[in-house]
Amino acid sequence: MASAEIAAEHERILREIESTDTNCIGPTLRSVYDGQEHGLFMDKLEGRIRNHDREIEKMCNHHFQGFVDSITELLKVRGEAQKLKVSKTKERHEQRYMQCRLQQRNIATTIDKLTHCLPGVAFRAQYYPALCTLEQLEQSCLPKAGGYRFCAIMAENIPVLRTHIRDVSMSDLKDFLESIRKHSDKIGETAMKQVGLCVFSAFAGLLQGLLGIVRYDVMLPHHRGLSTVPGAHDLVDFSPVYRCLHIYTVLGSRDTFESYYRKQRRKQARLVLQPHSNMHETLEGYRRYFNQIVGFFVVEDHILHTTQGLVNRAYVEELWEVALSKTIAALRTHSSYCTDPDLILDLKNLIVLFADTLQGYGFPVNQLFDMLLEMRDQYGEILLKKWNLSFRQIIDQDNYSPIPVSTEEEYRRISGQFPFQDPELEKMSFPKKLPFSEFVPKVYSQLKEFIYACLKYSEDLHLSSTEIDDMIRKSTNLLLTRTLSHCLQYAIKKKNVGLAELVQIIINTTHLEMSCHYLEEFISNITNVPPDGVNATKLYGTSTFKDARHSAEEEIYTNLNLKIDQFLQLADYDWMAAQGGGQASDYLSDLIAFLCSTFSVFTHLPGKVAQTACMSACKHLSTSLLQLLLEADVRQVSMGALQQFNVDVKECERFARAGPVPGFQGDTLLLAFIDLRQLLDLFTQWDWSTYLADYGRPTCKYLRVNPHTALALLEKMKDTSRKNNMFAQFRKNERDKQKLIDTVVKQLRNLIAAHQS
């Protein structure tokens, strides 16, 4: 065969292979092996395969980016759907749930109706013909048969047979009552599981619609069996009730049967509603209690809808009213023992499921939701106790030092925990220090965790967004004003807290105060309620942190004064020294050094706080020095001692003049020592004539010297020692000095007396 013909034949075979179904390709392949140039065909086949591979690769490359873009868009859609899911209102969710519940109820009712036709048919096939036969025998056949003996025997046995049938059916009923008592827990568990799955199914359907993903159900394989969850009729055979009811009805004793059935069920209700004494210890205890109650009323609801009048709506509602009051009373008692917020939260979710289940059967459950609102206060108190421990632990573990940051990653991590912005600090190179300690981001995180915990409880309580927002804000205010406030006071007042720690507490509370508006926004974001609404509750965080800061400031002032007192206790003046020294006393030099070191730490404090602390310390020092001079134990003071005392006061004035903290205008800080300065100038310069002449005038040189103070000090300078007086009479200068002192003392007393009168 010519090469052109062979090539054409091979091309034809290749087209057949490409276009022929795989089931019919056999003859084509046979023609390849039967033909010539088999190797040449294989080469051509390989070439065709490579061409197709290149086309496939080209097509894949062409569509690959589109595929990637589609996946990216799908992921974005999933993220947006998640946000949309959260933003959907609760009313829409409940509407979908109720639709699903109604559909389920209709299906279940239909199945029940059809299923329970079977026992009725079976009963009529077994018992009804027998009862009809007995009635026919008694009313028609036997009277017509005449007075035969066998007729009389049969007539006598008819009541016995009726009684036997009645007794057998009653025995079956008692077995049924025992059965539902045993299965009540399981029936209730099944009913609550149905509601739980129905809620999930409604939510999943909503999510599926939002995502627009047809195969979303593939992701939820374990929730497909909703319709296969067994109902009450699957767990309990109700035919004994129907049979007994019909027999008693035929026998004319329906009222007796109804009375017996209701009486027995009331007894069972009392047992079901009696909780175990240790029910509060675990969630399972509550779960069993709810399952039994639900199981009881599911059975009664089933009987109500499948029998004609054995129980009526009024009877069932009366039972439910009693059950509701006893259930609520039991829950109030047992939940009051609970101290675990997680258990309270789980219990709340279980009560919601319990209420939703019974509401689906038409029972009113508003009182249960009212009780859940009462439990919300208890839950809040338990949360406050838990968070009190958390805050105390944070306080005890804090090092009260600015947070060192070595890398950008660390800086961003802390900024993510706490909303902190400082452009100047951001410009600084690493390593650097944040002004606050670990206390701040930890407390802020705990505040957010508390808000989340409050939000969890408010879910599914049929509350509006505004009500949830108000509840969270009020609970958070309690946390701020009561729990956190007390913990901050604990941190401020606890033993061994130093000035450095108090300074850090002031810095910490300042930053937490500035973060309060972020907390406002955080709550608004999770409740979808704007923080500036007319009725919106405002957070008291600003006042809480401000009060704590003021308390810490007062504690700083107090601690500074205590430190000053400790140094003053080391003062050891020689009050009878003949001449003063040229240098300040050692204790005072140490005190001034301490104050300089302390005020250098105040650089991060608000200026007003540092200035107030410095002025307070100087005033206390001045007052304490004066008290030291006028102490009752100091009976005599020499001029030499006064000179040494004056040197010490000058050292204090030098400290004040140096400006230990910035912000004072002129010599404002020197005014703290003005009383001491004027008193010492009066005595060291012995300028009594000026003092006595100008006393009482606004321009008096010694305006701040109180005559009582001057008199007390002057009395100490009198030589009252008998021994000294004996030697003093030989020293004319001493005698003249004593006379002068006596004269001034007399004039001061006259001055005091004149102004008192």
UniProtKB/TrEMBL annotation:
Keyword list, A-Z: Exocytosis, Transport
For this UniProt entry, what's an example GO CC term?
plasma membrane
One protein family per Pfam: Sec15_C
Q: What is this protein called?
A: Exocyst complex component
**What residue stretches are annotated with the Exocyst complex subunit EXOC6/Sec15 C-terminal domain?**
367-716
What biological processes does GO assign it? Golgi to plasma membrane transport; intracellular protein transport; vesicle tethering involved in exocytosis
Transferase in keyword set:
no
Biological classification of the source: Eukaryota, Metazoa, Chordata, Craniata, Vertebrata
- Residues forming the Exocyst complex component EXOC6/Sec15 N-terminal domain are 44-192
